[in-house]
Design a protein that fits this description.
Shape: rod-shaped
Low-confidence stretches: none
Number of helices: 5
CATH superfamily of the largest domain: Response regulator
CATH topology of the largest domain: Rossmann fold
Number of domains: 2
Helix content: 40-55%
Strand order of the largest sheet: 2-1-3-4-5
CATH class of the largest domain: Alpha Beta
Strand content: 5-15%
Distance between the termini: 65 Å
Oligomer: single chain
């Protein structure tokens, strides 16, 4: 299945066409509402791209994305305005050649998928360990209860038959 990229902003440089030509599935969003809907779909995004422009600062869209997705963020620069580039996992300069852009995006998505797969593996291991820990706790409680009962039984088997109490436990 093709990697899914959600895009927000105006595609003035035909970057989306290049991505689609390279085999990516693109959801193009022109509003924060569309972005939120795309992020909440059943299919997780492999990356979310934002195209900066004079009329668009990605701050609100980035906030919405981070609250709905752990996908890496890509910023397509189109201006030289001050922008918090540190928020993004990949910043694509205005005149970067398409081949370089595609290579960088593919590497970012591959790293993200590897991290996600590792995280899922750790989550499964954690779940197994929690189940094993719960089983050990149950066995411990049963053993402790059995020990308490044995300590309260008389030490002489004939005393048990006669109904005499066992030795008292010292706290």
């Amino acid at each position: 299945m093709a990697a899914r990229i959600i895009h927000f902003g105006a595609d003035n440089c035909h970057r989306l066409w290049v991505l689609q030509s390279a085999g990516y599935s693109i959801d193009d969003c022109q509003s924060v509402v569309q972005l939120r809907t795309a992020l909440q779909s059943a299919i997780d995004a492999d990356a979310v791209a934002f195209t900066e422009s004079e009329r668009f600062a990605p701050d609100e869209a980035v906030h919405v994305t981070r609250s709905h997705s752990a996908a890496p963020l890509i910023l397509f620069r189109e201006t030289h305005n001050d922008c918090a580039e540190s928020v993004f996992d990949l910043v694509v300069p205005v005149l970067e050649p398409p081949e370089s852009r595609l290579t960088n995006i593919a590497a970012l998505i591959a790293r993200s998928q590897a991290v996600r797969a590792n995280s899922q593996g750790l989550s499964r291991k954690s779940s197994v360990l929690r189940q094993e820990t719960a089983a050990v706790r149950r066995r411990f409680r049963a053993e402790r209860q059995r020990s308490i009962q044995e300590c309260s039984m008389p030490s002489d088997p004939w005393d048990r038959v006669r109904g005499k109490p066992g030795p008292s436990r010292q706290a």
